[in-house]
Amino acid sequence: MDLLLILFGFFVHLDGIPVSENLYWDLIPYFVNSTKKEYVTNVGQTAYLHCRVGNLGDRAVSWIRKRDLHILTVGILTYTNDQRFQSIHTEGSEEWILKVTSPQIRDNGIYECQISTEPKMSQGFLLNVVVSRATILGNAELHVRSGSDINLTCTVTYTPDPPNFIYWYRKGNLISYSERGGINVVTEQQTRTSRLLISRACPEDSGIYTCSPSIGEPANVFVHVLVGEEPAAMQHGAADRTSTVPLNSNLFFWLRSMFISCLLQSEIINLVA
């Protein structure tokens, strides 16, 4: 009797309360719209795409790469030779998670969570893989007078989450407060910024300084600590000196040619006269 009621969609009353017996419609699978649709991750950082399905019943959930309609997973089984893709599901849970290990730029695009109904039901999720990198403000080389301060600011861009840490290195060695006094590092995770201050710089502080975040490409700057000469003079002096000689030489030859030309013109005038 219950089966007939389900098939014909009749309504019955139990204890005077109307109850729908059209259970077919109540058991249609659906996507839970509270799930996130866009994901941003760094190159090499594992990504997790969450798809929630209600009333799945005996149907299967698959993950499809939309650009080539390649089936990645069916249920918890992986259907691709690329083992970086894996489906994660806990028995009794509505969540079907696509795990992408070590994502690369080529993995950018839309991935569909698909239910094996007729016709198929699907929901798209956008994965954006970015290259995070550190940037040290200023030029690639910094000239500092001995006794003044070295002040470097590093920012980390194109990162979906703040880095866990930002370390500073000099000549490949981690800068330590125990090396000498006057070293101060201030890191603000939310703004993805780190500042290195070295007071009373000396020539031994010269070298390549590296800002290295927990995620992303590092950045370098070459610091020159100078003694007895203005940094600007040392930075541009060599170019100025090399350009002065040709300038003076050209001027000398130009003046000489003008003088000879004037003499020749004067001689010609005298002959004509």
Automatic annotation (TrEMBL):
<dbReference type="InterPro" id="IPR003598">
    <property type="entry name" value="Ig_sub2"/>
</dbReference>
<keyword id="KW-0732">Signal</keyword>
<dbReference type="InterPro" id="IPR037448">
    <property type="entry name" value="Zig-8"/>
</dbReference>
<protein>
    <recommendedName>
        <fullName>Ig-like domain-containing protein</fullName>
    </recommendedName>
</protein>
<feature type="signal peptide">
    <location>
        <begin position="1"/>
        <end position="16"/>
    </location>
</feature>
<dbReference type="InterPro" id="IPR013098">
    <property type="entry name" value="Ig_I-set"/>
</dbReference>
<dbReference type="Pfam" id="PF07679">
    <property type="entry name" value="I-set"/>
</dbReference>
<feature type="domain" description="Ig-like">
    <location>
        <begin position="29"/>
        <end position="116"/>
    </location>
</feature>
<dbReference type="InterPro" id="IPR003599">
    <property type="entry name" value="Ig_sub"/>
</dbReference>
<dbReference type="InterPro" id="IPR013783">
    <property type="entry name" value="Ig-like_fold"/>
</dbReference>
<dbReference type="InterPro" id="IPR036179">
    <property type="entry name" value="Ig-like_dom_sf"/>
</dbReference>
<dbReference type="Pfam" id="PF13927">
    <property type="entry name" value="Ig_3"/>
</dbReference>
<dbReference type="GO" id="GO:0032589">
    <property type="term" value="C:neuron projection membrane"/>
</dbReference>
<dbReference type="GO" id="GO:0050808">
    <property type="term" value="P:synapse organization"/>
</dbReference>
<feature type="domain" description="Ig-like">
    <location>
        <begin position="119"/>
        <end position="211"/>
    </location>
</feature>
<dbReference type="InterPro" id="IPR007110">
    <property type="entry name" value="Ig-like_dom"/>
</dbReference>
